[in-house]
C-alpha cells in the first residue's frame, strides 16, 4: 500500500496526462468521425472512396504500429512532432475511424424518407445532414460511441511505448523503485476503471436525456 | 568493401522495419539492460563454444538432497528460467537457429547443466514489471534478466550473486561536443529505456535533466539520432554494442553508477540460494565465468576480462 501512497505525486501526474490525452483525443476523434462518416454517405463517389480508404486503413492496422511509425518514421522525412502531440494525433485518427463507422450506423437508422423530405423542401445535402440527419443519427448511437471512448481511454496506455509518461508509464516507474507490481498495477487498474465508469455514466445520462421518442 | 556497404544499408532499413515489427515484444516490457529486436548481424561471434558447456561443472548427488528445489528441477529434466529474448549480448534469440544467446542466457544454461547434467533450459519471457510476482508464484525457478539487486526488491525475492556488475553510461550523437559525461546533462533532455535503472538513477546523477523514456533500446537509439533528446543513458555494455553498429553515436565518459545484477530466486528458499551461490563460486574459480564473458559482453568492451563480483557483496544479495 505504501508503494502507492508514497508516490501519489508521480501517479497523479500520470493520471492527469492520461485524462488530458483522453479529452484531447475524444474531441479530435469525434470531429474526425463526423467528417469521415459524412464522406462515407455523401453523394460524390470519389469522397465516398476517400472515406472508405481512411476507415479501412486505420481500422486494420494495430494502434501501436501506427504510433511507432508516426513517431520514428516521420522524422526520417523531416517531420518531427512532440511526443504528446504525436500520440494525440495518432490515437484521434485511429479512434476516429471507429467512431465514423458507429456514426454511419446511426445515420442509417434515420429513415430514407426523412432525407428525401429534407431535399424536397429545398435543403442542400449539408443542410439536410446538419438539421435533419445527424441530430437524429448521433442520438441513436450514443451507447456504441461511449464504448469506443472507453476503448480510447484504454488505448492511451500505448502512448507509454513512445515516451509519454501517462498513468501506465508512471506505474511502471513507481514499480521500478518499489518492486510491488501487484499493488502498483492494481492501483493503476482501479484508476482506469473509475475513469471508464465515469465515461459510462456520462454516456448513460446523455442517452437518457437525448433519447428520441418515436 | 562492397559486402560491408550492403550490410550497413540493410541494417539501416532493418532498424525501421524491426522497430515496427517487434513492437509487440516491446510492449511487454524489457530487461533492465534494455532490449532490442533480433538483428541477425549482431549474433555473430557471440556464441559460447560447446566445449565450455562440456567442461562446466555438475553438482554431485550429495549437493542435491531429496525433496529440494534442485532435486525437483533434476527430476523435471529442465530449468524454468525467466528472461528476455531481445537483449543483445545478454539474452537474445537467434532468429535463424532459435537459440537464446548472450551472457544471461549462457549463465542459465550453465546452471541447468550444474543441476541436471545437461544445459536444458526453458525460457519464459517476462517483463520487468512481473518478475517479483512470477517468482513468488513459482512460475519460474530463477530469473536471469540483468536483475539489479536493490534492498526494496530483496524484501520480495532472494538474490543469488551478484554474478555481474555493470553501470550506466552516457551516449550522444557523433557531432555533439558539449556533453562529455553525466555532469553535463543538467538542463538537457535525456533519453532513457523505460523500466531501466536509468529512470531512477538519473534524477540524482543529473539534477535538472528532463527524461524521455522509450520502450525498447532500438527505439531509444533511433530517438537519439532523430534529436528527440541530447543524450541516451543506458547500461554501458549495451551502449558500447550500439555505438559499434551505429556510426552516428558515441559513448562519452565512464559509467557513473554500479549496477550489481543478481539471479532472482524465491525468497523463502534459502537452500536453493546457497546452492546457486556455491555454483557461482565454482564457475568463477574454474574460469568458466570468464570464458562466457569474453565470448558475449567481452566482444564489444575494450580492455581485459573483469574480475567477477564477490558473492554476497551487495546489500540485498
Rg on CA atoms of chain B, Å? 19 Å
* Estimated share of beta-strand residues of chain B: 15-25%
Query: What's the total count of β strands of chain A?
Result: 0
User: What's the helix count of chain A?
Assistant: 10
Number of beta-strand segments of chain B: 13
Number of helical runs of chain B? 12
Largest interface: A-B, 29 and 35 residues
Query: Helix share of residues of chain B?
Result: 25-40%
Give the termini separation of chain A: 52 Å
Q: Kindly state the mean pLDDT of chain B as a whole number? A: 81
**What does the main sheet of chain B amount to?**
5 strands, mixed
Widest sheet of chain B: strand order? 5-1-6-13-7
What quaternary form is this? heterodimer
Query: Helix proportion of residues of chain A, in percent?
Result: over 70%
**What is the CA–CA distance across the termini of chain B?**
49 Å
Round the Cα radius of gyration of chain A to an integer and report it.
20 Å
Q: Look at the helices and sheets of chain B and give the structural class.
A: alpha/beta
Q: Largest sheet of chain A, described in full?
A: none
Helix and strand run of chain A: HHHHHHHHHH
What does this 3D model show about the protein?
Chain A is flat, with a radius of gyration of 20 Å. The relative contact order of chain A is 0.16. Chain A is built from ten helices and no strands. Helix content of chain A is 80%, strand content 0%. Chain A has 214 residues and is mostly helical. In chain A, helix 2 (8-41) packs antiparallel against helix 9 (167-178), helix 3 (45-59) crosses helix 5 and helix 9 (167-178) packs antiparallel against helix 10 (181-209). Chain A has helices spanning 2-5, 8-41, 45-59, 63-73, 83-109, 112-120, 125-140, 142-155, 167-178, 181-209. Chain B has 317 residues and is α/β, with parallel strands linked by helices. In chain B, 36% of the residues lie in helices and 21% in strands. Chain B is built from twelve helices and 13 strands. Chain B has helices spanning 2-21, 23-27, 50-55, 69-76, 103-116, 131-136, 151-154, 197-205, 217-225, 236-245, 270-285, 288-295, and strands at residues 79-83, 86-87, 91-93, 100-101, 121-125, 142-148, 158-166, 168-173, 189-193, 210-214, 231-235, 249-252, 259-265. In chain B, strands 5-1-6-13-7 form a five-stranded mixed sheet. In chain B, strand 9, helix 8 (197-205) and strand 10 (210-214) form a beta-alpha-beta unit. Chain B starts with a helix and ends in a 22-residue tail after the last helix. The chains are: A mainly alpha (214), B alpha/beta (317). The interface between A and B is medium-sized, with 29 and 35 residues.
Amino acid at each position: 500500500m505504501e508503494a502507492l501512497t508514497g508516490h501519489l505525486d508521480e501517479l497523479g501526474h500520470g493520471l492527469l496526462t492520461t485524462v488530458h490525452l483522453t479529452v484531447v483525443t475524444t474531441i479530435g476523434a469525434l470531429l474526425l468521425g463526423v467528417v469521415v462518416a459524412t464522406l462515407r454517405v455523401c453523394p460524390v463517389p470519389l469522397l465516398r472512396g476517400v472515406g472508405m480508404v481512411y476507415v479501412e486503413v486505420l481500422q486494420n492496422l494495430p494502434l501501436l504500429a501506427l504510433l511507432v511509425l508516426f513517431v520514428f518514421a516521420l522524422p526520417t522525412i523531416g517531420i518531427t512532432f512532440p511526443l504528446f502531440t504525436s500520440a494525440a494525433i495518432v490515437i484521434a485518427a485511429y479512434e476516429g475511424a471507429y467512431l465514423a463507422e458507429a456514426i454511419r450506423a446511426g445515420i442509417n437508422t434515420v429513415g430514407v424518407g426523412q432525407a428525401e423530405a429534407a431535399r424536397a423542401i429545398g435543403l442542400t445535402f449539408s443542410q439536410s445532414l446538419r438539421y435533419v440527419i445527424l441530430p437524429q443519427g448521433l442520438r441513436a448511437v450514443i451507447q456504441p460511441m461511449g464504448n469506443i471512448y472507453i476503448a480510447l481511454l484504454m488505448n492511451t496506455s500505448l502512448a507509454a511505448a513512445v515516451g509519454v509518461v501517462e498513468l501506465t508509464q508512471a506505474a511502471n516507474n513507481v514499480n521500478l523503485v518499489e518492486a510491488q507490481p501487484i499493488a502498483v498495477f492494481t492501483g493503476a487498474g482501479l484508476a482506469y476503471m473509475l475513469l471508464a465508469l465515469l465515461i459510462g455514466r456520462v454516456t448513460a445520462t446523455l442517452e437518457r436525456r437525448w433519447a428520441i421518442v418515436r | 568493401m562492397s559486402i560491408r556497404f550492403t550490410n550497413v544499408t540493410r541494417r539501416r532499413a532493418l532498424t525501421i522495419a524491426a522497430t515496427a515489427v517487434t513492437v509487440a515484444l516491446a510492449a511487454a516490457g524489457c530487461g533492465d539492460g534494455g532490449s532490442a529486436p533480433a538483428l541477425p548481424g549482431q549474433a555473430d561471434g557471440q556464441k559460447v563454444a560447446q566445449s565450455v558447456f562440456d567442461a562446466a561443472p555438475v553438482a554431485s548427488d550429495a549437493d542435491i538432497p531429496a525433496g529440494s528445489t534442485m532435486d525437483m528441477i533434476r527430476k523435471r529434466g529442465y530449468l524454468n528460467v525467466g528472461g528476455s529474448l531481445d537483449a543483445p549480448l545478454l539474452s537474445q534469440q537467434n532468429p535463424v537457429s532459435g537459440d537464446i544467446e548472450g551472457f544471461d542466457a549462457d549463465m542459465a544454461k550453465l546452471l541447468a547443466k550444474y543441476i541436471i547434467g545437461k544445459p536444458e533450459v526453458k525460457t519464459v519471457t517476462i517483463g520487468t514489471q512481473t518478475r517479483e510476482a512470477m517468482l513468488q508464484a513459482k512460475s519460474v525457478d530463477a530469473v536471469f534478466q540483468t536483475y539489479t539487486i536493490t534492498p526494496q526488491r530483496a524484501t520480495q525475492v532472494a538474490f543469488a550473486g551478484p554474478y555481474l556488475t555493470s553501470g550506466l553510461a552516457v551516449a550522444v550523437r557523433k557531432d555533439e561536443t558539449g556533453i562529455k559525461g553525466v555532469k553535463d546533462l543538467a538542463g538537457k533532455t535525456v533519453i532513457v529505456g523505460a523500466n531501466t535503472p536509468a529512470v531512477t538513477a538519473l534524477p540524482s546523477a543529473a539534477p535538472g535533466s528532463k527524461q524521455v523514456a522509450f520502450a525498447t533500446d532500438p527505439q531509444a537509439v533511433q530517438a537519439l539520432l532523430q534529436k528527440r533528446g541530447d543524450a541516451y543513458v543506458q547500461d554501458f555494455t549495451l551502449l558500447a554494442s550500439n555505438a559499434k553498429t551505429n556510426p552516428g553515436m558515441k559513448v562519452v565518459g565512464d559509467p557513473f553508477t554500479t549496477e550489481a545484477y543478481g539471479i532472482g530466486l524465491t525468497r523463502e528458499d534459502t537452500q536453493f540460494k546457497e546452492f546457486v551461490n556455491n555454483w557461482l563460486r565454482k564457475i568463477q574459480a574454474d574460469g568458466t565465468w570468464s570464458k562466457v564473458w569474453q565470448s558475449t559482453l567481452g566482444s564489444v568492451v575494450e580492455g581485459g576480462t573483469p574480475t567477477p563480483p564477490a558473492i554476497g557483496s551487495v546489500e540485498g544479495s
